[in-house]
Design brief:
- There is one protein chain.
- This protein is mostly helical.
- Helix content is 54%, strand content 0%.
Length: 102
């Protein structure tokens, strides 16, 4: 048993890959960032901030639909989807006939 060098993993539960990486933002922070992006997307750059809010909400939910869902993550996902849909409708409407080009 030279692999442990006398130090078992029972005292250090985060060693040897027992927990996820702690280098990035946690789920609560991603949910809040997603909500902020979704709300800001209603006013400016909805076509960019909407998908950002969807991705942040999805990552904050743990990339799964099962289990409990934190409220900020779900709000970010739903508002981001609405924001993206409204931005796409606005873009299609602006590119349609009668926009003043002809």
């Amino acid at each position: 048993m030279m692999a442990g060098f006398g130090h078992g993993t029972r005292r250090y539960p985060r060693s040897r890959g027992r927990m996820g990486s702690r280098t990035g933002p946690d789920r609560a922070t991603l949910g809040i960032i997603g909500v902020i992006c979704a709300i800001a997307g209603f006013f400016v750059l909805g076509i960019i901030l909407g998908p950002v809010a969807i991705v942040c909400g999805w990552l904050a939910m743990g990339r799964t639909w099962a289990g409990d869902r934190p409220v900020p993550a779900l709000v970010a996902l739903v508002l981001g989807a609405i924001d993206t849909l409204l931005a796409l409708i606005w873009l299609v409407g602006a590119a349609g006939p009668g926009n003043g080009l002809l």
